[in-house]
Amino acid sequence: METYQLAELIITQGEETTKLLFTKAQLYVVTDTGYRLWYIEIDGMPQTALLQAFEESADLRVELTGVTAGGRTLAGTGFLHPNTAHYAANIRGDGELPGF
Question: Three-state SS for 84?
């Protein structure tokens, strides 16, 4: 498993683009029997209205872009799963994350 600290993360859903605010976000890339999957854990999100909107939505799919603390860029598609009570969220990757 590879782990990357994220410095910036921006999501787009439909016409709405939002820069996520957080105290900590990490990208995990897991290789298992030749298959790679990825997910992002986000902690310390003050954007409770955004988290609540995802809790109430049937559409969790987002396009995302970001930058690691080391300066690598990332772009992909995933599903945002909010945890409003803990000011957190996970994004489960859908498909490839080019470059990772």
Answer: helix
Successive 10-residue mean pLDDT values, the chain, 100 residues = 97 96 97 87 98 96 97 97 98 92
CB 30 within 8 A of CB 38: yes
What does the alpha-carbon distance between residue 74 and residue 28 come to, in Å, rounded to a whole number? 12
Report the sign of the C-alpha dihedral through residues 21, 26, 30, 36, in that order: positive
- Enumerate the domain spans of the chain: 2-93
Provide the pLDDT for residue 31. Answer: 87
Q: pTM for the full model?
A: 0.94
Amino acid at 87: Y
Whether the CB-CB separation of 57 and 40 falls below 8 Å is answered with no
Helix-then-strand count for the chain, H and E: 1, 7
Q: How many Å apart are CA 45 and CA 51, to the nearest integer?
A: 9
Query: Which element (helix H / strand E) includes 50?
Result: helix 48-56
Other Cβ atoms less than 10 A from the Cβ of 81: the count is: 15
